[in-house]
Prior knowledge:
This protein is of the alpha/beta class. It has one domain (about 5-360): Alpha-Beta Barrel (TIM Barrel), CATH 3.20.20. The protein contains 16 helices and ten strands. It has helices at about 5-10, 30-40, 50-60, 65-70, 70-75, 80-95, 120-140, 160-170, 190-200, 215-225, 250-260, 270-275, 285-290, 310-320, 325-335, 340-360, and strands spanning about 15-20, 100-105, 145-155, 175-180, 205-210, 230, 240-245, 245-250, 265, 295. The strands form three sheets. Strands 1-2-3-4 form a four-stranded parallel β-sheet, with helices on both faces. The chain has a four-stranded parallel β-sheet with strand order 5-6-9-10. The protein has a two-stranded antiparallel sheet with strand order 7-8. Helix 15 (about 325-335) packs antiparallel against helix 16 (about 340-360). It is an enzyme of class 3 (hydrolase). Its EC number is 3.5.4.4.
Amino acid sequence: MSTPLTLDLIQQAPKALLHDHLDGGLRPGTVVELAEQFGYDGLPTTDVEELANWFRTQAHSGSLVRYLEPFAHTVGVMQTPEALYRVAREAVEDLAADNVVYAEIRFAPELHIDRGLSLDQVTEAVLAGFVDGEKAAEAEGRPIVVRCLVTAMRHAARSREIAELAIRFRDKGVVGFDIAGAEAGYPPSRHLDAFECMRNNNARFTIHAGEAFGLPSIHEAIAFCGADRLGHGVRIVDDIDVHSEDDATLGRLASLLRDKRIPLELCPSSNVQTGAVPSIAEHPFALLARLRFRVTVNTDNRLMSDTTMSQEMLRLVEAFGYGWSDLERFTINAMKSAFVPFRERLAIIDGVIKPRYAVLIG
């Protein structure tokens, strides 16, 4: 019999992460220290453990809108170059400690200009943190490649500006563009000029869709906007009629998504917290994986979900009985879907992921 996969074992595996929000992954102690250092007095508590529990409790709301409310505090302490640099560097170090070998971390520059920083200054501080985080991880013997996605808030009107920012920094660590925020009432088609800007510059983008609003947002993201990937996309299951364990009929949208191999940035714990799915055991991840959609495993917001990539994988293992070969497939799915050039993706798949999984599989 094979050895059951435990958290300690899964932590040894190389991982690729596509959907992780910078302002959703701070260390609780860092939030407290930055609040004191820069005069932010809005925290519900300055006790580190109590604050960690508060974030976790508030996020488990069953609503995407309520889930997003605690971000006011993390964003509130990320308004200076020093704070942005520290948070970015620590994010890289934390991911590397969990054996993440490739990560795309996203953030919304427009949320970090309350103290007068320009969008470029915000982005430069974050990218500097990523670079130094990579160097620190390398020195610890845990090499990691980290790239950035810049996000526009879908309820605001700066998406074209943020897309242009992505193009300006495309050779400095930014590999793509995203829109995020509450889905209901803010369809992706409101931001067509931003997506056109990305396409005109042969640049890549993902869109938060199919988390809270269902199939219409997925349809717009694919058919109107031309998304390369879907942030979450979990509600594509509504276009699948399951007859039995081995028999399902796909609707036209689900078929298109699968046929075009459009990656789904699934975030199991977060999807439960926002009410997109009832529980991990009822998450459509297993169905979508079985039907050979391009599924990937992601953290979304490590602070709010009190999670890591290893913990997300463990929850799927416990719910669906996955083994090493399954986790390797999901990891390669993610690396294939990354926004870095093909040769860089292939180098990590063939030079890091496959060899290390070969040792784990035995």
